């Protein structure tokens, strides 16, 4: 009888641990959603348009982006007297990079398109993650440079994995760490998000994103959402 009691107690403790862990990740994600402006605000985002500057190796380039939720994203940037374009969509991707001596648009590597597909979700990785087929695990807390973070391991439906670090005070994303295929090599990419701002109606976004080890920093001087976007912007131009 004593053995049964101890076994029951052990199983009960395991159940409590699992339940507590599930509640903890839900609580942390819930507070993150609140910090971003709330679920209603996030789920209302259908499109996004931005303008800003991109810094790479001491040089600065102006850029513009256009995104339609779960459909397509386009980035244009000016460099060395040329305008360059990259597009990712649910139909594939293409790029036109005159700065790299390209003479015409070319299709993007399917692996690159697959990895970038998560960026088409304008509601963010953690919002409604279960319904999207993703899983999220609260690894715990960790401290970097005197700052404390919640570390969340997000495994997306397509199998890609990202570690997300939330500031324990603000519940905003401070870092995203993931592996990406760059020119045939697996590279660990760290995105540092900062300079959070709030739109007039309460939507919160990171106005500065830095990517390491590439040393690229993007500052968003203009940010609009739910603006009308002509989806012809995402179509690959016909060959001349």
State the major sheet: 13 strands, antiparallel
Strand order within the widest beta sheet: 6-5-4-3-2-1-13-12-11-10-9-8-7
Broad structural category:
alpha+beta
Percent in strands = over 45%
| Model regions low in confidence, pLDDT < 50 over at least 5 residues | 11-22
| Global mean pLDDT | 89
Helix tally equals: 3
Q: Helices and strands, in N-to-C order?
A: HHEEEEEEHEEEEEEE
Helix content: 10-25%
Shape: globular
Number of strands: 13
Radius of gyration: 21 Å
Q: Distance between the terminal alpha carbons, to the nearest Å?
A: 84 Å
Please tell me about this protein's structure:
- The chain has 240 residues and is α+β, with helices and mostly antiparallel strands.
- Helices cover 19% and strands 47% of the residues.
- The protein is built from 3 helices and 13 strands.
- A 13-stranded antiparallel sheet has the order 6-5-4-3-2-1-13-12-11-10-9-8-7, covered by helices on one side.
- Strand 7 and strand 8 form a beta hairpin.
- It is globular, with a radius of gyration of 21 Å.
What features would you highlight for this structure?
240 residues; 3 helices; 13-stranded antiparallel β-sheet; 47% strand; alpha+beta
Describe the structure concisely for a colleague.
The chain has helices at 2-35, 39-43, 110-116, and strands spanning 47-56, 59-68, 72-79, 82-89, 92-96, 106-107, 135-144, 147-155, 161-167, 173-182, 185-198, 204-212, 216-225.
Q: Which helices and strands occur, and which strands form pairs?
A:
Elements: H1 2-35, H2 39-43, E1 47-56, E2 59-68, E3 72-79, E4 82-89, E5 92-96, E6 106-107, H3 110-116, E7 135-144, E8 147-155, E9 161-167, E10 173-182, E11 185-198, E12 204-212, E13 216-225
